[in-house]
Amino acid sequence: MVFICSALSFGVSVMLIGEYQHNIDTKGRVAVPSKFRDDLGVLFYITKGLDNCLFVLPQEEWNKLVEKVKALPISKARALQRFFFSGAAEVMPDKQGRILIPQQLRDHAGLNKEITFIGTSSRVEIWDSKKWTEFNKDLTQESVAEAMDMLGL
Predict the structure, then answer these.
(1) If 62 and its partner were Cys, which of 21, 45, 106, 137 is the partner (CB 3.0–4.6 Å)?
(2) How many whole angstroms separate alpha carbon 62 and alpha carbon 78?
(3) Distances (CA, A) of 90 to 45, 98, 136, 146
(4) Residue 48: pLDDT above 80?
């Protein structure tokens, strides 16, 4: 007897890594990279992210975000609640692995035809491909070395 299961079924954290280019259609549908689909699960969440991208979180990571924000005093939490939850969408890929990104989220990230999915360990980010290229131009060897020093690497 052979048992096949995902890392999520054992409570093991996912490791979302890699960079993938895809095209979004005029209705806002895009295929989620197959490398991400298993780790994201059947149901996951898309919300506004930092740096004008979108965050894509598996259920487990979404629940952690919700609990952390709920634990904050309302005076500190309200801006985060409004930012992350007001435009968030619960999504399920169709049989072709496509999801629909709501218009307000496409507007937030400035998504046009060419988009880039990147894995950032516990979440996926969705970027307009031109913005992703521009963002990486500002990333220098010195800034990476400085961050590595802070981590003790």
Answers:
(1) 45
(2) 17
(3) 5, 13, 29, 37
(4) yes
* CA nearest to 125, candidates 101, 95, 153, 151: 101
Rounded-to-integer distance, Cα 135 and Cα 118, Å: 13
Residue in the block written with tokens 């699960």: 41
Pairing of strands 19-23, 114-119: antiparallel
> Which pLDDT tens digit goes with each residue over 63-79?
999 999 999 999 989 99
Which residue in this structure is represented by tokens 């093991």?
Answer: 12
User: Closest Cα to residue 119, out of 36, 52, 37?
Assistant: 36
Q: What is the pTM of this model?
A: 0.85
Tell me: pLDDT of 2 over 70.
no
Eight-class DSSP state of 133: H
pLDDT at 9 exceeding the cut of 50: no
Residue tagged 């969408």 (tokens): 89
- CA separation for the pair 14, 7 (Å, rounded): 7
**Burial (CB count within 10 angstroms: exposed 0-12, middle 13-18, buried 19+), residue 22:** middle
